[in-house]
Amino acid sequence: MTGHGTAEARVAIQEWMRGLATHFKATTVALYETGHSLSFGKDGGARRSEHGSWTGLVYFVDSWAEKMASAEDEFDGFPAGIRASEHPELLGLIDDPNAPAVVLLLSEGHGTLAGATARRNGAVAMVALGVWLHYDFPTILLLYFTAEDDAVAAATSYYLTTLPKDVQRLRERYQGQVSRSLFDAIGAMHEALGVPPASAAEQPFDVRLQGSLNRHAADIGCPDLRVYLLDDVGHLDPRTSALQVGKGAEPRRRYVLHRGDAAGPEIYVTGDDKGPIGWVLRDHGKPPAERRGRLAMHNRNLLEPGWVKDQVLYPGLTSIDSAGRDRADGVHDLLGRPAGAGGEYCASILVHPVLAGNELLGVIVANGRQGAPFVFREWDDKGLGVVARLLGSYWLGEQLRRIEDADRALRERAHVAIRGFAAATAKRFGGDDPSVSEMAIFGDALKAATEMVPEANLVSIRPHDPGSQNGPEFYIDRKLLAGSAATDPRIQDKLGTRFRALAGTPETAASAESAAEYVMRLRKPAIVDSLDPPEWYRSTFPGMFRYGIYAPVFRGGDAGRPAAIIDVRSAGATRMPASTADSLQELADMVGLALALADTITELVQTRHTQSQAFEDVAHQIMSLHRNVMTEIDRSLVMLRNNDEAGAPDKLAQSLLVARGQLRRASRVGRDARMFAELARTGKISQPADARPIGKEPLVEVLAHLVDDQRRLVTDDKPLNFVLWSRSIRALYDDDIVGDIAMFEQMMGNLIDNAAKYSYRGTTITVECRRDSGGRFVLELANYGYPIDDDEKLKLGTRGFRGAAGKRRVAFGMGIGLWLAKAIAKSFGAVFDFQVSDSRREPHRVYLVFPLRK
Amino acid sequence: MRQHRILLVEDDPHQRRAIVAALRQRLAGAGPGAEIVTADSERNARLMFRGRTLEKFDAYVIDMMVPWSQDDEDDDRDDPRVDRDGSLYAGVRIIEDVVKVNGAAKPIFAYTIANADGVSARMRHLPTSIRYLRKGDTDKELADAVAAALLTSKP
User: Which of A631, A805, A813 has its CB closest to that of B14?
Assistant: First the structure.
């Protein structure tokens, strides 16, 4: 932590933690304070812990990270032998009688919202989620952003760095594309989750939530903490960029619950037809003076619609601090006080949208007094529930974000599935039929979803290691088997047996590693569910049917390589007060299921979507290359006709070589398309059955051709140098690489093309063949390319990804070259790795390490 | 009679060279000839506007998919479409700038490999007089179309 003010903030947080401990009747509250390098880095991580045993979680992650770093296997395959059961420090957490009631993960950012900070925060968020879901401890993720000496500058959450961008993109891109049914589904889910004890059951959910927040508003240092749940706030017209309010004749519910008093500020985000913000939004196009005047007529505080638009609807979370800062005018307007008045009411305002896709479900508005940033001294389970809802909504939205142009019918089916899920959820929480076990209902929900989206192929169920120290574990390994559902009898069987496990099939040998592998591929947390616990488990832990979460954790330095996987599994009993625990668990379950469902559907849809886009792009590229070839041939013909032109034979030869290079590229693009199809269909690229060693000479020849072609395609616009290093070429063996030479050429061609495409002019691209200290054949390609920032490192080599800097500078490309090269490398049994740079002084490097020759 | 001045935005150097040659050849036989100013990115095209008045161009030939900037040029275009859509809208943006400054009085060619539907969907907000021209195997069609437009357009 840096800066004078941060110490004050820390004191405030400790105060808050004590409050939490009291509230939960807990003796300890753990504080994990993370370092700059990474939230749980070896040296900086867990720098301070007020409860020793819980550092186990941190070190558990670390120990995995270390194994990862030293793992020699390709990273797609999770290193064997790493299991939670080998880590008593983790298992110990579960039975630790002193385990904290609340885990606070605290991470510090800086004034600048750099990519590294966002990534680190993402990692912290994963840990928070994992702890929360699997240990039943409410976990608050609190991130500081310190602007040197101003601790009050901001204290906000993870979303400050990432959500604004995402939300803006999401809203702009997907407005109007997520149907009302999704909104209904999410609404139903939220409603279901908010069911309180019987006496208050009649109250609408939002009233209860608001009441809950109001009860604690004073205690948490925020005179006003309100949740405004919106009913159809409107959307952004992508063509005109204008805000459209409402979507039809359906009467809009009034959700502004707490109007405040004369002293209290209010932010009206929506309302009924007479409500202020609906009115403001409708008048968005009017001149500010007129808006202000009409607002005044309504006796409301002055509030610029532009502020609402910019600060609430688009960027997502906004923190506004006290006088003297950029947004001071907005704050003062908001508070109905003259600008410059300053004072105790002008401290910080936190506005946070609750989103599901492009639907704005609600806005949390918290207005704190001047002083420590956002000092929550106490919050109840409903408050925590808000956090849960934020996460759940955000994830659903994030997953659905990609559906954009998908096939309409499929999209509708996806929504129907989510509706089915929501209906089943509501049924479960509504308690219509208490005799039906919740497992059956969950099963019904999933089954309904699966039937409605048959391609989703949600599950194969695997009992895992029953009776182990860690308790029973049953995994649903949600493998996406798109395309094969209709014909795969095993899937049909599973659907017919209500997701029962198929004992005796090879799949029952599932392991934690396979789940881990799965999330590595997903590159994001996944829920691995337990659906079919034995009777004794049900009776021992009534109501507790948990989900294991596998969360890859990324950290800097190793681009695209998760540093660890958090593997937290359900086991043991809760330590939380029952009501809180139940509430959280239910929320967690719902979030988990929603995530899993949305995830699967999205992957399914995206497969089609990306495929069609990629093919279009491939067609463009081939046409473009073809055109260039024709141009060169035309030039050649002209030269042939004018054979008296000085130097014509040389120019002719040059022109034809360029044409040949272009044709080779075109042919590689065509092969890319074919391989893309294979990879999309089967999930892998296979070597031919009769694959043989590629001899040393053909190998070098292919590389030399590729490099020569690229040399010829280079133009004065963008000069590049190519170097084919073969320092150890004499040491190469004829059987260093076993496989199809055309596939080898495709892989290397893609890599070299990619390097040429995204390199700075005047730089050198180096291809080096060598042998590593272990005797393995290594191909290394280095280029001085456009920068790749920290966030992008994680996505490099995934399908469809193109870096922002590259996308600006290179017109064509769909981000499949590297992805295919990776898959081809895998078919050769090679380890594919890269090391990227965010500076033009350091090269990006791609390594292909081939297996030891036999 | 002054030379025709044409702004050509095309990022592929091979194609640019061929188009320039085709235009020069075609227009050499049709009046005073042509001066062809080229740009290879949205940013470069924009710089053309800044230094010269757009009115001085008699025609615009704009490849619809060009990069927003080249190589180590600054990324200075603040347009949400840059990151969102890659190069999809760079050509559209250039046309928007042209239209903003001098309307659509001079011939503007949206020259692209993409099909007409895709391009027109992105240009709904622009004047309908913008001409779509699909990239073929040679540049003869382009040169003929530009020559015809120049001969019939108002001085």
Answer: A631
Q: Do B72 and A626 touch (CB under 8 A)?
A: no
- d(CA A450, CA A492) in angstroms, rounded, equals 11
> For A200-222, how does the pLDDT look when each residue is reduced to its tens digit (9 = 90+)?
233 333 333 344 344 333 333 33
Yes or no, beta carbons of A628 and B113 under 8 Å apart = no
Please tell me the CATH code under which domain A687-849 is placed.
Answer: 3.30.565.10
| Strand, helix or coil for residue A690 | coil
Report chain B residues whose CB lies below 8 A from the CB of A805: 75
Task: Residue B71: list chain A partners with CB under 8 A.
Answer: 718, 760-761, 809
Closest to A191 (Cα-Cα) out of A445, A354, A383, A422: A422
Best probe of the B interface among A627, A718, A786, A816, by most B CBs < 10 A, is: A627
Contacts of B114 in chain A (CB under 8 A): 620
Most confident of A192-201, A287-296, A816-825: A816-825
> Where would I find the H helices in A194-267?
205-217
| Stretch A538-555: mean pLDDT | 36
Residue carrying structure tokens 């005109």:
A240
Q: What is the pLDDT of residues A699-727, one digit of tens each?
A: 888 888 888 888 877 777 788 888 887 66
Chain B residues with a Cβ under 8 Å from any Cβ in chain A: 11-15, 18, 40-41, 65-72, 75, 80, 82-84, 86-87, 90, 113-114, 124-125, 135-139
Nearest CA in chain A to B78: A808
Q: Are A626 and B113 an interchain contact pair (Cβ–Cβ within 8 Å)?
A: no
pLDDT classification of A332: cutoffs 50, 70, 90: very low
**CA dihedral sign of residues A517, A529, A383, A18:** negative
How far apart are the C-alpha atoms of B14 and A659, rounded to whole Å? 11
- Dihedral over Cα of A521, A524, A528, A529: its sign: negative
Contact residues for A812 (Cβ-Cβ < 8 A; gap 6+): A617, A620, A621, A624, B65, B87
Are A173 and B84 within 8 A, CB to CB? yes
Domain boundaries, chain A: 4-220+376-610, 221-375, 687-849
Give the ipTM.
0.80
Supply the pLDDT for residue B117: 67
What is the DSSP-derived secondary structure letter of residue A784? -
Indicate the residue of A624, A635, A717 with minimum beta-carbon distance to B40: A717
Total domains in the fold of chain B: 1
Q: What percent of chain A has pLDDT over 70?
A: 21
> Would you say residue A831 has pLDDT above 80?
yes
CATH of the domain at B91: 3.40.50.2300
Please count the other Cβ atoms lying within 10 Å of the Cβ belonging to residue A373.
27
In degrees, rounded to 5, the angle at the alpha carbon of residue B15 between the alpha carbons of residues B9 and B21 is: 90
Q: Which segment, A130-134, A716-720, B76-80, is predicted with the most confidence on average?
A: A716-720
Query: What is the Cα–Cα distance from A829 to A74, expressed in whole angstroms?
Result: 9
Contacts of A481 (CB under 8 A, 6+ apart): A457, A488, A491
- Radius of gyration, CA atoms only, chain B: 15
**pLDDT, position A749:** 92
Partner residue facing A804 (CB), from B12, B13, B83? B83
